[in-house]
Amino acid sequence: MPELPEMETYKNQLLQLIGGKTISDVEVNRAKSVNLPAGEFKKQVANQSVLDLGRYGKALFFRLSSGQRLFLHLMLGGRLYFGTKEDAPDHTKQVILTFGQASLFFIGLRLGYLHLISPDEFEHHIKGLGPDALNSHLTVEGLTKKIRGKRSPIKTVLTDQKFIAGIGNRYSDEICFAAGCDPRKKGFEFTEDEGSRTFKAIQQVLQEAIQFGGYMDTPLFKDDQLTGSFASKMKVHGRAGEPCQHCGTTIKMVEISSKKTCYCPVCQK
Ligand SMILES: [Zn+2]
């Protein structure tokens, strides 16, 4: 599932591609992917301009000139492609927004969705989510205190969207490794120092992943050289059985709350 860095990469690139542009046509091929009857959705979205794009946790939203927003959650298997019908991947496109010559294709939206909502409904959509993991108001002290109030393993704490929004299975592994913390260690067992290391690791890992375009294995557009470059830079996730890049010990995999978790038994205490 795309996490914060993947959605931030989409946001930054889409701003360049469709920011300020007008949606000339709308195609809904799967009624369940949108929240209004397809005809009504098309009527309200067509001819609107995309004024801006934003992100909250793993969700992306498009601010339309009408004041409404398109709220996108890709969930599992969803992805985006921008280009012409000819160069788009040969997969079912649940929704297509056309901007003159090129279109934005929403692919693999089976669990994911694209909802047209008002600013008030936006508040409702993000209600219940924790602060965005890169929210500038998050502090070392605040986060450490919250972690220490938890009885669950840090892996579970970090991937709980109600606790902090944007981190999933992949980046939680990388964050625990960067912090030098055993992913099974419970929140209340964390020292001030471990809390501080975790805070720094969240910022560092997510920012670096954004810099390298996240891990998505398909490009957003034809000559996209950025998307997915971080996949090869992951240090523990998906590397069970390989030697740790830091100490050479074999990376292990365990299940924590039914999430496959990779870690180095020597570097992470
Ligand atoms: Zn190691």
Task: Provide an overview of this structure.
This protein is α+β, with helices and mostly antiparallel strands and 269 residues long. It contains 7 helices and 10 strands. The strands form 3 sheets. A 4-stranded antiparallel beta sheet has the order 1-6-7-5. A 4-stranded antiparallel beta sheet has the order 2-3-4-8, sandwiched between helices. α4 crosses α7 and α6 crosses α7. The two termini are 27 Å apart. The protein binds zinc ion. The site of zinc ion has 7 residues, from loops.
Helix share bin = 25-40%
Mean residue pLDDT = 97
Integer-rounded radius of gyration = 20 Å
Net shape: globular
- Total strand count, please? 10
N-to-C SSE string, H for helix and E for strand = HEHEEEEEEEHHHHHEE
Ends apart, CA distance between termini = 27 Å
Question: Hey, roughly how much beta strand do the residues contain?
Answer: 15-25%
User: Unreliable segments (pLDDT under 50, ≥5 consecutive)?
Assistant: none
Number of helices: 7
Bound molecules: zinc ion
Structural class: alpha+beta
Strand order of the largest sheet: 1-6-7-5
For the sheet with most strands, the description reads: 4 strands, antiparallel
